[in-house]
Amino acid sequence: MNDDLILSDLQHGDAGIRRLAHGYATSGTWRRLLQRGAMVAREVASALPRDAVRAVTRPGSNLTRMELGSNPCDGATSVALYVHYAPDGRISEMVRCQVRLLRDCGFAVAFITMAPHVPDDDWAAMRPLCALIVQRLNFGLDFGAWRDLVPEVRRRWPQLQELMLANDSVMGPVYPLGPVIDALRSGGTGLFGLTESLQGGPHLQSYMLLARGPAAVSDLLSFLERLFVTHSKWLLVQFSEIRLARWMRRRGHRVAALFGYDRVVQAVLTDSAERRRLARSHAKLQDLDQMPDAQAKALLQAWPLNPTQHLWHVLVTRFHAPFVKTELVRRNPGRLPGVTEWPAVVPSDAPCPLPVLRAHLAAMGR
Prior knowledge:
Spore Coat Polysaccharide Biosynthesis Protein SpsA, Chain A
């Protein structure tokens, strides 16, 4: 196993000032943070009346179409719930590659698309790769989709030992996925992910999560069942991704990440080029390449960054992390320097080659 693929238990601690600090670090300036705060306030204010109407009217199922794949995998003990969205409904070759690799790692894949229309040939192309293919309304983001599949998971696969939650919000893999899955499985029982974020309190970023062991799987399913799904993206992230790690820890489960925040920060501090790269990303960090290690580490703890945004380059080049966040490449919300260089980090023998990644971006409207 790659020595860099080592699970680190999540840090302990509450959100505290880190929520505001992270928002500032991600936004870049206090002015942009205030603008972001105003936008969130408007979004929440708009969502709450719609949430109230939904609670009163109790609309029917969000699932609009469900079919078995070529191999329904009856009795499977390892299942992956993979969420997809594309504005034109197409299922890109990159998405098919990700699903195929999950299947090859031993998962029965339930593919869930939130696209309003999927071309027939794309739907048919997923049948050989999946145990179940589902279409649902585009409501509640990924956690809403995972929640809607809980009854079906309980009915079809009652003896689960592993449950993976995954989505197409990341590009790749640019490095082999098998060793990453093996490393997640090496942690025994609990909840495991790739990257640890300190925003809102230590938690696992949810683009790929793996619950292992019957108790952990059961508690993850219970978390999803009880989740309040809101029209507000901001509120949903607070209720779901940020809260999940605390939920699992309170029930006695290990929660760990392959790329713990401290490990990634330490890799930055030992690489002068990465220090300079990070110093250019934010005014608060402009003297980072001149600071003693202890001072620099304390700063990056006090002003925690988003690993898949600010630390993307060291994750891929130093740790061979398999994915790059699509949002980073498409929109670069933190206006970080050097993001346009992302093709240079994709190896020539990447499982999802560069032309496949470019085609996926084009389909997403880049």
